Amino acid sequence: MSDPAPGAGGPPTRLEIQHYAWLARTFGRTDYLLLSPEDLAALGDAGAYVRKVAGTHLFREGEPAPAAYVIREGTVELYRGDRSRSMVVSRTGAGSVIGDIAMFRSEPYLQSARAVDDVVALRLDRDRLLPLLLQRPVIALRWLVAGLGQLERTQRRVLGLMHRTLLQQVAGLLVDEADPRGEVHLSQATIAGLLGASRQSVNEAIAELRGRGIVETGYRMIRLVDPAAAAAAAHG
Fold it and tell me: Residue 212 gets which letter from DSSP?
């Protein structure tokens, strides 16, 4: 199921204005390289919204990569492998751009993207996006800024995991992934995949946090009982 993105022709509607404001926030900083209304309209017209229910895919590893996706709502899990043996690479949400590296390089997708919950994403097809980036350098630079920002966050996360015990890594991940109610909707297998650890080791770390009264556990859910203590455990 897909919906066309807001289009040009006449004064923009309230929906189009909201859509353009979201695009402006998503693609890089807003205090320089400002996107003009024409830039935003052109970027919006280059894509179409797609909606995915939980458990379905935006794309699969090894498929041709004709498009990139900008997540507007929901959470997407990126993983490698198949149903019998898969490893979660990351989880990402609103404002993230996925699939663009493979799209720009005209290579197959490097990983699969599965909706964790209901997802709304703007699909940007290469055949429409590349001419737009060549015609509008400010959009190209903003895309570069957004991509470098995601790379920097990934590097910070990797550096943050270095020289830390698995217990510290698990506690830090729980703090980062907790929702406003303190709930973390990740299975222990997913946590193990995200940290590159064995499931048994992750189970032991969570059991220790539970023993300290820091977390409670349930089916595919962990709740932070004491977020401050969890943050302290993450930093040793």
Answer: T
